[in-house]
């Protein structure tokens, strides 16, 4: 039996995002959050497990992010970092940080103002520097399903290939994705770190021959662990050499995986 494991953002959906650099207050829509984390070994990408349109945007803009997390018992996960970080340690590190909910709300509003008409709201989060205890960037992201994806999923099902998703995105957004592409929610692994993606592949290999399809540095371990690792460039982001080196195949469009023999 065979299985294909997809990353989500940049792989199944074209990602749209707004990222605010709290060091200078500038907001951009082109920076890659994974590469920003890669730039400093002390950084970690945090994903908030809440719908920004129902929670974050309604928060007191002057409340610090730390207080918002603590007082509302907001669930979060560390989706990408160079080393394992305990959630308690992360909360401790930012308890004196002065970044506010307005910094998160600014990124949400920037995405809305662009009128991307996203299918999936990936959610909001931030990048923290564990050495300085400072939130350096806030992020909100969403995306549109690449137009080829429904046909690709349908054809894989016709071939009796099992379909899974392993992504660093929040649970709610991936449940939306599962409904959209008609796969069981239990086949979706949310807020998966690089190491967790590798472990997911390793577990699936006990039952299937596995193809991993991803597009970024947080997919490297999974690409290497899979029987076949496929790097997709459809998002159009600059891709580090180390991601190319981890892949067995490189494609420019998600539909091309149907031509990869595994």
TrEMBL record:
One biological process term in Gene Ontology: copper ion homeostasis
Cellular compartments per GO CC: membrane
Presence of keyword Hydrolase: yes
Top-rank lineage group of the source organism: Archaea
Keywords: Hydrolase, Translocase
Keyword Hydrolase attributed: yes
A GO MF label: copper ion binding
Transmembrane segments: none
Pfam families membership: Hydrolase
The protein's name in its UniProt record: Haloacid dehalogenase domain protein hydrolase
